[in-house]
Design goal:
Strand 18 and strand 19 form a beta hairpin. The chain is globular, with a radius of gyration of 19 Å. Helices cover about 30% and strands about 25% of the residues. Helix 7 runs parallel beside helix 8. The chain contains nine helices and 19 strands. The two termini are about 30 Å apart. Strands 12-19-18-15-16-17-14-13 form an eight-stranded mixed beta sheet, with no helix packed on it.
Length: about 325
């Protein structure tokens, strides 16, 4: 832990060498009857215009992942774009717009829906067309299950089946994995690594950077309710809160409400400006104990899943810059 905090201190003094990136994710486009997973075309076009006109470098997710894992510097304001589930609107709406801007895309696919020609999904021919145009294909399993609710043998079969289908249809075995619903336990996380993937991504907000487990990288999810331009700017201009000794280690809660906490380097402070928020609860009690942050929720997390996001201003020479640091996790009761 001491070595880790020392490395964070070194990192903090050279933040503009940029060992971090923001990853944004979408599902549907212009499907306004599905607002929880849809982004309107007006919102999406505003996002693309911001990415094109601002100080950002939009890179392929595989390139960003490799640079971070191998410790190679990235430009500040690096952004990667990902889309889950291969809905038809990706092919009809998102793909041509991304092409017009020259922005790379990683598309995470659950193979069973494509095999079954389900209504509302792209076809293998359309996915091949996108792949031929440079779209990276990642895996999201075969049947898109809640992976922490199935046993490891079933999970292994999910990956083996989807890998075989990718090879048969696209000639590749994906190197990147996205957990369906962003859900996993530690055993599933380790299985995905064992199955030969290079990295894996959840659906919790936060900044992708070298201090995170490469099979627990975060992404900022956007939909109609959480898709305005100000939130996009906040996400793609943010920096990480490097964290270690995170408790609980697993997102699957054995105690609810959890005794949630993590340790950061004091050099990235002032830590007294950190604030944490829980979904459905708003701002929650945040206790600063030196470099240790402890978060206490007023009640148990309910529903299918919850999230805790912690943010703090980014200072240079003692002055706020207008940018924010961010650390988030998803928790399953």
């Amino acid at each position: 832990a001491l070595l880790f905090i020392s490395s964070i201190a070194s990192w903090a003094s050279t933040v503009h060498a940029a060992d971090h990136a923001s990853v944004i994710m979408y599902h549907r486009f212009g499907a306004e009857n599905m607002p929880s997973t849809n982004i309107t075309l007006e919102q999406f076009e505003a996002h693309l215009e911001e990415l094109a006109s601002g100080p950002y470098t939009v890179m392929a997710l595989s390139e960003v992942t490799e640079a971070i894992i191998q410790g190679r510097p990235l430009p500040d304001y690096t952004v990667a774009i990902s889309i889950d589930d291969a809905f038809l609107s990706v092919y009809k709406e998102a793909f041509p717009r991304l092409q017009s801007y020259g922005f790379p895309l990683t598309l995470f696919v659950a193979t069973n829906a494509i095999d079954r020609n389900l209504r509302g999904y792209a076809t293998w021919d359309q996915i091949r067309e996108m792949q031929a145009a440079g779209v990276e294909i990642g895996s999201q399993s075969h049947t898109h299950p809640h992976m922490h609710q199935i046993d490891l043998e079933k999970a292994r079969q999910e990956i083996e089946t989807s890998n075989n289908r990718f090879i048969e249809e696209l000639g590749i075995k994906p190197q990147l994995f996205a957990y369906p619903y962003g859900e996993y336990n530690l055993a599933i996380r380790d299985l995905i690594k064992e199955m030969g993937f290079y990295a894996a991504f959840g659906q919790h907000s936060g900044i992708m950077h070298k201090t995170l487990h490469p099979f627990e990288f975060p992404r900022f999810a956007f939909n109609e309710a959480y898709g305005d331009l100000n939130r996009l700017k906040l996400a793609i201009q943010a920096l990480p809160i490097p964290a270690v000794d995170i408790t609980p280690e697993s997102m699957i809660l054995s105690n609810n409400p959890p005794l949630y906490g993590f340790t950061v380097a004091e050099e990235i402070g002032p830590l007294d400006r950190i604030a944490c928020f829980s979904s459905g609860m708003g701002k929650v009690e945040t206790i600063v104990l030196g470099p240790r942050i402890e978060v206490r929720l007023p009640r148990a997390i309910t529903g299918k899943r919850g999230r805790i996001n912690c943010t703090m201003p980014y200072f240079v020479d003692g002055k706020e810059t207008g940018r924010w640091r961010w650390f988030g996790r998803q928790l399953l009761p």
